[in-house]
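Most newcomers find our protein records easier to grasp once they have seen one. Sequence and backbone structure share a record, each on its own labelled line. To make this concrete, we reproduce a full record directly below:
***
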Amino acid sequence: MPLYFLCYNQKMDKVKNLLEITFFARGGQGAKTAAEILAQGAVSEGKVVQAFPSFGPERSGAPIQTFLRVSNREVRTHEPVLNPDVVVVLDDTLLKTENITRNLKKDAILIVNSVKTAEELSRQLKFFGKIHAVDADGISLKIIGQLRPNTVILGKIIRIARVAKLESIQKEFRKIFAKKLGKEICARNMEAIKKAYDNP
């Protein structure tokens, strides 16, 4: 059976064999880590992935982009993602300085870490495609006790874009961070991911 994943347009009925995601964040917010966890989760399900930053290592506080491709076939290109299907914004202050929607397709999906509503973001950006807002900062502080928006937003991404299953992402997170964070903090991260996943 061929492997497929779903990337939805506004009518939630578009099936693609290649999903391209661009992350906008600031250095130190963990965009690279989020992309790597998504990539590992997808690989564990037999998919082919690419995950790479636009400009080398993250510089703390500086705007950065990270790219992720997920496919059920060999991905031949190694170019930056120019016309993403999904854009993830980890810091909504970047909406004022970065041209987030410049290359967005009409049926693209925008996922933003913000306390604003999707409607408010749509008016601000003059983008009328599908927007999902999640207060990843607030959820991470409440559940994890630390500012970890990249962890929380994983749940929203996999719920909306179906990059990988929730269980796959949680398993990869534990594999990478269980020893580093400890059992209790790791469990809180799992809860935070699920919180965003359960609130589409």
Remarks:
- The first strand starts at residue 5 and ends at 6.
- The chain has one domain: 18-198.
- The chain is about 40% helix and 20% strand.
- The mean pLDDT is 86.
